[in-house]
Structure to design on (485 residues):
């Protein structure tokens, strides 16, 4: 049984290590959107390159995050975590030095691989190291400090972009890694799953990532209507079908099809797809709208959305407690509807938009909606499967959210008629943004309908989330349970 106490020096070092590691990935996911206009200008990139700058990272992260958790359980959580931190930092260095958009996109894909190794490992290290009596407080510190990092991210990113330059958004990860790695090697005990067996589902991971990559390419390049786009779409569907077949026939699949026999689990993940597709599109386009159309500086755009994260940090735990009392159906129905209202309020944000009267009301309503739904969504996912599969349930839900954001960033510019240079024209981008927000609102309404029709109260005594405080606006928290030392 793990026996490290939180009050001990080693316990504090472990918390510091996991916070530093997870903050690298969390900061990266929140600050890159703010930097996109400057990246496009500096590298003379089209809109599709900016989409790939976001999606290349999400693609490899979403496709490999379940495999990353399994590698840690098998070969050592500290070993895989440290490997992920080093990999992430090296890819970040390559991002910061990238001379062309193509190199930046390739480096972002490599970053996602590192993120898939370190993200599951940060929480797993806490669960595998601390005495059960201290584990809850340790997770609370980890999630709280991580939430603060999510809140600081857009502000820091905006300051870096406006000051030293967008490259420092990525280069900042290097000193964090230089601090994190030696602390982890010196103070964090190694742990692994003694009962681990079977082969890794590498084929499933490759097919899943390939299906996502080909489909994303087809969506981003759809406006060209070329043969390559059609071929990519067909091959993407074929890879998706092959992925399903492989997962159904492997003895140790990465994504066991049997988990979807739970109607509750399937329903909540469908709600997740709707909700985080809208969120992904919203945060991608809003960071551009505020700078390209409203004339905000990168720092102004970064801080404009800060109230959303602040509300989640302050009230996510209370929202989870309320859902425990009244059940998840009402929060998962009301939350998306409130967020949909926020999307429509964003239609007031145009040229020379005033922050207090135009932007802030939409941001506050958005934060209220996210507070209402994110914590209950996580709790319902965990409660929908047996406790022994809670880590898998959380991983699937987290990956589903990332896939939803990936598809939204790829599809919305096509659906709204954005041209390759739309982000260079305030008028063209504003027109597309005003088409996109109602689409996002409609997807949220669909999520609310699904929740109202299919989500039910979990059975008594089911698994509850350990991450009570949550500040990330791009994905639900990644939980892990049943960790053995």
């Amino acid at each position: 049984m793990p026996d490290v106490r939180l009050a001990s020096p080693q316990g504090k070092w472990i918390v510091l290590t996991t916070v530093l590691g997870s903050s690298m990935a969390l900061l990266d996911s929140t600050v890159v959107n703010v930097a996109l206009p400057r990246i496009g200008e500096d590298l003379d990139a089209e809109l599709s390159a900016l989409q790939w700058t976001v999606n290349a990272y999400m693609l490899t992260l979403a496709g490999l995050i379940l495999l990353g958790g399994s590698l840690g359980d098998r070969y050592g959580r500290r070993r895989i975590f440290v490997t992920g931190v080093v990999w992430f930092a090296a890819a970040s260095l390559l991002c910061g030095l990238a001379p062309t958009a193509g190199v930046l996109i390739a480096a972002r894909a490599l970053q996602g691989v590192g993120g898939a190794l370190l993200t599951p490992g940060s929480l797993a290290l806490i669960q595998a190291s601390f005495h059960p009596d201290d584990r809850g407080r340790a997770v609370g510190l980890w999630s709280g400090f991580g939430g603060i990092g999510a809140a600081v991210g857009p502000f820091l990113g905006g300051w870096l972009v406006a000051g030293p330059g967008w490259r420092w958004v990525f280069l900042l990860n290097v000193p964090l890694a230089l601090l994190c790695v030696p602390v982890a090697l010196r103070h964090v005990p190694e742990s692994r799953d003694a009962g681990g067996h079977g082969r890794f589902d590498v084929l499933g991971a490759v097919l899943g990532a390939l299906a996502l990559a080909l489909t994303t390419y087809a969506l981003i390049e759809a406006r060209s209507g070329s043969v390559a786009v059609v071929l990519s779409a067909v091959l993407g569907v074929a890879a998706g079908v092959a992925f399903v077949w492989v997962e159904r026939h492997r003895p140790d699949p990465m994504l066991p099809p049997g988990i979807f026999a739970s109607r509750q689990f399937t329903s909540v993940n469908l709600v997740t797809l709707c909700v985080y597709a809208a969120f992904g599109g919203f945060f991608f386009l809003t960071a551009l709208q505020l700078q390209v159309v409203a004339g905000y500086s990168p720092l102004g755009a970064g801080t404009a959305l800060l109230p959303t994260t602040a509300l989640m940090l302050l009230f996510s735990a209370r929202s989870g407690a309320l859902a425990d009392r009244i059940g998840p159906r009402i929060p998962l129905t009301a939350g998306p509807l409130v967020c949909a209202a926020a999307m429509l309020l964003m239609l007031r944000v145009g040229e020379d938009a005033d922050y207090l009267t135009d932007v802030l009301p939409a941001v506050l309503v958005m934060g209220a909606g996210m507070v209402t739904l994110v914590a209950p969504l996580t709790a319902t996912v965990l409660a929908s499967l047996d406790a022994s599969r809670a880590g898998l349930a959380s991983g699937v839900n987290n990956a589903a959210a990332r896939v939803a954001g990936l598809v939204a960033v790829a599809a919305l510019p096509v659906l709204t008629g954005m041209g390759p240079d739309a982000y260079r024209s305030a008028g063209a981008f504003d027109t597309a943004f005003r088409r996109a927000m109602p689409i996002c609102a409609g997807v949220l309404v669909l999520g609310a309908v699904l929740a109202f029709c299919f989500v039910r109260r979990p059975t008594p005594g089911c698994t509850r989330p350990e991450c009570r405080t949550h500040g990330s606006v791009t994905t639900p928290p990644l939980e892990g349970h049943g960790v053995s030392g």
About this structure: The chain has three domains: 1-187, 201-253, 259-485. The domain at 259-485 is CATH 1.20.1250.20 (Growth Hormone; Chain: A;).
